[in-house]
Design brief:
Elements (H helix, E strand, L loop, with lengths): L1 E6 L4 H14 L3 E7 L13 H4 L1 E6 L5 H10 L4 E4 L6 H6 L2 H22 E2 L2 E2 L4 E7 L24 H20 L3 E6 L2 E2 L8 H10 L4 E4 L5 E3 L1 E2 H14 L5 E4 L4 E3 H15 L15 E4 L14 H7 L7 H13 L2 H7 L4 H9 L3
Bound molecules: nicotinamide-adenine-dinucleotide (NAD) and thymidine-5'-diphosphate.
Length: about 350
């Protein structure tokens, strides 16, 4: 029976990972979720899990050395999956400090606590693994449409978010090189799916369209992101944890590049198709809601992952085609209005107004 310490498990990908892992391994695994519950963390994402599976929640900040050490002292952790992070580029432009604190210093605390718990006189306890979840944004932006991000593409982050993630990746690599620490890194492209906070492109556009609110497109809307259904990312993480080579990094992405404006049209078309005429919300759905606003500062033009290594070494393949994934995602949001109402209460409205004021 393996024990997983998942950080940031109440967020978008972390909660999907916990669902994915219990769905796959059931009662054969134990998961401890450590999350400080920032605006992006929501325990509703995991409701029902505790009763069915071997699951525990610890409300703690990954920057809190003593709290994290305590989790390792009280539990024999086999795997760490480090999701906890500040994850939104726009917020990092407004307030970079918290990104360095959580993403860099928090990762350092996690590395030190795991190292202390796992180190023996002649190396590390058998089978222990630390997987650091990172992003393709560390590689910067691609100009040549034929170019892709490979594992050896030089890091060239442009936003405070991607710079903080790049720093954390370097720290993980430094622990491998200096201390022979048993870590691996994954760099994934943009995820979409259930439980994503509506500050990110896809849930923001779905939510705004349903409420007849403007759809703010940054710049010309032709920036390209490489979208992956969140379960395919979770599958990749599971495979890298079990079969990835220590000290290596693995890019995860499904060759699904789309311009932002194309995504918005797909969302509008799908909403029109799915919603019955009797649904009041259907009246709101219109291309007229699209509004081009001032571009994001330092906006990366194109991200695109070459997933050759994870395919070749671990036989990872994405399972959800975009057409199917986006439909499932939209259907999920349509049937989770209460979830949306909860996550957009609190300071969401003031955040939103600040972000779009005068753009
Ligand atoms: P998210 O913002 O939805 O969730 C982050 C979670 O971390 C939240 O539950 C939050 O409460 C928690 N958290 C934040 N600061 C914390 C702290 N100091 N201590 C403990 N918990 C803290 O993020 P996400 O989109 O699920 O991303 C998860 C990870 O995956 C991040 O490391 C991100 O860089 C990476 N990633 C995300 C994407 C994407 O498209 N969303 C793509 C590639 C990689
Ligand atoms: P986002 O979901 O914030 O992810 P990331 O910046 O990490 O890739 O944004 C995805 C793309 O959509 C990015 O090019 C910025 C753009 N975007 C908009 O045009 N309007 C919006 O309101 C948001 C949130 C993003």
């Amino acid at each position: 029976m393996k024990t997983y310490l998942v950080t940031g498990g109440a967020g978008f990908i972390g909660s999907n990972f916990i669902h994915y892992m219990f769905g796959k391994y059931g009662k054969d695994i134990r998961i401890i979720n450590v999350d400080s519950l920032t605006y992006a963390g929501n325990l509703e994402n995991l409701s029902g899990i505790e009763e069915k599976y071997d699951y525990g929640f610890v409300k703690a900040d990954i920057r809190d050395r003593e709290a994290i050490r305590k989790v390792f002292k009280e539990n024999d952790i086999d795997y760490v999956v480090n999701f906890a992070a500040e994850s939104h580029v726009d917020r990092s432009i407004e307030n970079p400090e918290i990104f360095v604190e959580t993403n860099v210093l928090g990762t350092l605390v996690m590395l030190n606590a795991a190292k202390e718990a796992w180190e023996t006189e002649d190396g590390y306890k058998e089978g222990k693994r630390f997987l650091h979840v990172s992003t393709d944004e560390v590689y910067g932006s691609l100009d040549d449409p034929e170019d892709y991000f490979y594992e050896d593409t030089p890091y060239s982050p442009h936003s405070p978010y991607s710079a903080s993630k790049a720093s954390s990746d370097f720290l993980v690599k430094a622990y491998v090189d200096t201390y022979k620490f048993p870590a691996v890194i994954t760099n994934c492209s943009n995820n979409y799916g259930p439980y994503q906070f509506p500050e990110k492109l896809i849930p923001l556009m779905i939510n705004n369209a349903l409420h007849g609110k403007e759809l703010p497109v940054y710049g010309d809307g032709k920036n390209v992101r490489d979208w992956l259904y969140v379960d395919d990312h979770c599958k990749g993480i599971d495979m890298v944890l079990k079969g990835g080579r220590i000290g290596e990094k693995y890019n995860i992405g499904g060759h699904n590049e789309k311009e932002n404006i194309e995504i918005i049209h797909i969302i509008l078309d799908t909403l029109k198709e799915i919603l019955p005429d009797s649904d009041e919300r259907k009246k709101n759905i219109s291309e007229d809601l699209i509004r081009h606003v001032t571009d994001r500062k330092g906006h990366d033009r194109r991200y695109a992952i070459a997933p050759d290594k994870i395919r070749k070494e671990l036989s990872w393949e994405p399972e959800t085609r975009f057409e199917e994934g986006i439909r499932k995602t939209i259907e999920w949001y349509l049937s989770h209005e209460e979830w949306m109402a909860h996550v957009t209460s609190g300071d969401y409205q003031s955040y939103y107004e600040k972000m779009y004021a005068g753009r």
